[in-house]
From TrEMBL:
It comes from Kangiella aquimarina. It holds the Pfam family DUF4129. Keywords: Membrane, Transmembrane, Transmembrane helix. Residues 400-471 form the Transglutaminase-like domain. InterPro entries: Bact_TGase-like (IPR052901), Papain-like_cys_pep_sf (IPR038765), TgpA-like_C (IPR025403), TgpA_N (IPR021878), Transglutaminase-like (IPR002931). This is DUF3488 and transglutaminase-like domain-containing protein. PANTHER family: PROTEIN-GLUTAMINE GAMMA-GLUTAMYLTRANSFERASE. The chain crosses the membrane at residues 12-45, 57-77, 107-124, 130-151, 163-182, 553-574. The lineage of its organism: Bacteria, Pseudomonadati, Pseudomonadota, Gammaproteobacteria, Kangiellales.
Amino acid sequence: MNTQSLPLTRPGIIPILIIVQAIVLSPLWFHLPAWISASTIALLLTRFAVYKKAVHIPSWLILILAICALGGVFLYFRTISGREAGVGLISLMYTFKLLEAKNYRDGALILFISFFILVTAFLYDESILMGVYLLVAMMSILMGLIALNSIQGVAGIRNLGKISGITLLQALPIMLILFFLFPRLSGPLWAMPSQRESGMGIDDEMIPGSMAGLYGFDEIAFRVDFEGEAPPINQMYWRGLALSEFDGIAWKIGVESPLRRDSYPKGSPTYQYRVQLEPHNRRWIFGLEDLIEPPKEKVYLFNNYTWRQSQRVTQRLLYSAQAYQIDYSDIELSQWQRQLNTQLPEDSNEQTREWAIEEYQKVNEPEEFVRYVLSHIRQQNYHYTLLPEVFEQNVIDGFWLDSREGYCEHYASAFVFIMRAAGIPARVVTGYQGGEYNPYGDYYIIRQKDAHAWTEVWLEGEGWRRVDPTAAIHPSRVDDSLLNQTSSRDDWFTDFDSLTTTDSELARTFWRQISLRWDAMQSFWNESLMGYDKDMQFNWLSKVGINNNQWRYLGYALLATILLAGAGFGLWILSQAKSKDKIERAYRRFQRVLEKQGVDIRLYEGPKDLLHRIKQQHPELYPKAERVIKRYISIRYQKSRVSESNQQSFIKTAKSYH
């Protein structure tokens, strides 16, 4: 019977199609607009009600509803392309297709489209759990395909899950070959543009409270895997932006320009590392000071020694980088750079400006003045807190001379202001400081709460020196609410009294270990599977002797591998089937003996018809042939499994016929 003529009314076909669609769409329901998710659920429930009540929905009504859904997507997103609009529209049309499905072709189309829609879940979540879920969803689609091609529907198939699982395992070798050898794009296939992207992390300006606002977020900013030795945690300053322009309240990037390759500064390499940067919807990427060589294509080094990408980071970005110790002996600060890094707004924070000028006259030497200001922070009653007093005007005056309470951005802002007031070039640097070591994956986790601001001061003959005024605060003046943050900055505050171990702390330690183990698995998944890009593929292939200019030979080898694997697998299936069917071989041998005795053997003829013809045309052979053929019929067409002894008995009887 032609399977394409099978109706969808067979037992369980419509319910299994509804279940498949629900499984495929369920991850998207948490990311699509609520009205789209609710509409797809309502359409699935409507299709089930139509199936149970055996009613008919007019095609014109379905068409009107589909047009309304298309209009709703356009009105909501102002487009029908892009990630959210595209996925939302195809999800709605996917469920509308089931509502109007009538025959085998419609069911097959729904199931094959399911494979495509399944991949769209990776647009929103690339975790291990999502990968496992999509594997289960793929199993459900295969079960639907098997049921769709069964005459009796779901009721006629035993071990439906087992059959689909075996099918998936049979396809696994080809899947692995295609994954490792198929030409990769420069970015993930699902890196589609989004109209509703948002990100968390370092912004392009710093105002009082901007860094403190990230303190409570444990979200991972990036992971770093060092090749060989790693620096001490308190020396891990992950540079992001250099802010040189100040308007009295906010620090901004100011004038900057990319450097030509022949203008890169010289330096001696120190630490080599690999970064997994989580998407933050901004163009800057982070690296361990000092930054020279850009880590990837379309990443540029700017004259303030920061890295910038040509496009926003909207997908996880993997890159390898080299840290350097820059030699500034041949670098001079140009006149416009000196002016940029000494400018201050007029009529702003006059009291602090006067304090800086007066105190600088006491030492009259930039390096000594840096030490003097740090000593002033250490000896005076300055506090490190998340909840400082808020000043609407003259923020630096209020912090430096009055409240003396602030977070890292307050100290960095005031320190640079004081340096500039004394005529010393200085700027604010924002990024992350420290990190949490994961012993189960041998890498460091940098979280949003590790966001930090520090400063750089230009000293003649030395160049830009990193100065972190927050580290000068006396440990006794750090708020208890920030005690946990000192884990990544442990050399700043070493005088805290050790805490007493309690049961709750043991529980936190236990769950922390589980969290780190899970993150190590997620990191491996991100880098080895989800991050398997063109660069990783070339690196892997170069180890087996395939270079970039031999790419077409890789394509030929891939095609040949698939063809040979398919042919080998097909031959193996045929040989297995042939070797296992001992009953059929014995029966064919019996037929050859009959043919020698003058019986016309017709391959399309069943055993019952053959026996009837022998009785009419060769009655002398009928008694002996009847015994063999009837035993063959009882063995071949009975419902229960034939015992090994009965099989051997038939084979012996068939061989004894002569």
